[in-house]
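Worked example (supplementary).
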Amino acid sequence: MKLAHFSDIHVTHFPLSGGFALKRLAAVTSYSFAGRGKHFEGSDQRIAALLAHVESQNVDHALCTGDLTGVATERELERAAELFGDRLREPDRYTVIPGNHDRYVTSAAGLFEKHFATLCEGASFPAVKHLPSGVTLVLLDAARPTSLIDSSGLIGEAQRSKALSILSDPSLKDRFVIVALHYGLLRMTGKRDSRPHGLRDDVEVMHLLDRADVSVDLVLHGHLHRPFTIRTKQRHIINAGSATDLHMRCGYNVYDIDVAARRVAVTRHWWNREAGRYEPDTSHALNVTLTTR
Ligand SMILES: [Fe+2]
Ligand SMILES: [Fe+2]
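After joint prediction of all chains, the assembly is encoded as:
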């Protein structure tokens, strides 16, 4: 079974529409004057190329772990939905979960759901998708509007408790179980992310996923724009990084999953800016084979 995983595509459309908010204004200033806008310049073209490239890899399913937009205006969510096009009606082939930038301010409430609920089981989390190949996706949502200097996330007690009953169900024992969320559980260094940037209940979520009585093969996320793989005590975590951020070697992953052998082979693809296309990143450290349970 082949699964594509991309994240943090950040459709960015200014001037703003959909309501003033100080946090959005600060973001526009950062994009306009502090160079961040250059990271996502022309991202629409890369996103279209990304979706086409993913399809050319003959994957069975594609997962996006959030941050579709820059500041979650109606126009940005609409544009992201336009780029997905008919794929929004193909939940068997595509899954999308929200990132913090898709719920950037309180006035953005409901916009992600309006456009992308079809690809995440109605956006009621935790959501579960059983794919025909023996792979199960368990989707968590940590994205919420925050203050000006805060981009942290929270899964919360209610969602963790439901996730525990899903993941400890005996019916998942023989399936290849992937837990997907926007936020990482550890940084590339193996340390916790910072309080204003990371998941507030990272320790609790890690404790839950490391339990001996839950079925988890792989944890997938984005949010941190540089990709990497790391381990908790029991689980492999893969961060896809950003698929479109020009400030780094942006790209996406394809996982070739052998369900019976509990093995996943990772292939990294990167955006070759000069050539104007995604292509295999043959020397990337993420090209590894992992045994999961
Ligand atoms: Fe991001
Ligand atoms: Fe993020």
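Two points are worth noting when inspecting this output. Residues 8, 10, 67, 99, 101, 223, 225 surround fe (ii) ion (ligand 1) (CB under 6 Å). The helical segments are 22-33, 36-39, 43-56, 74-84, 111-116, 157-167, 202-210.
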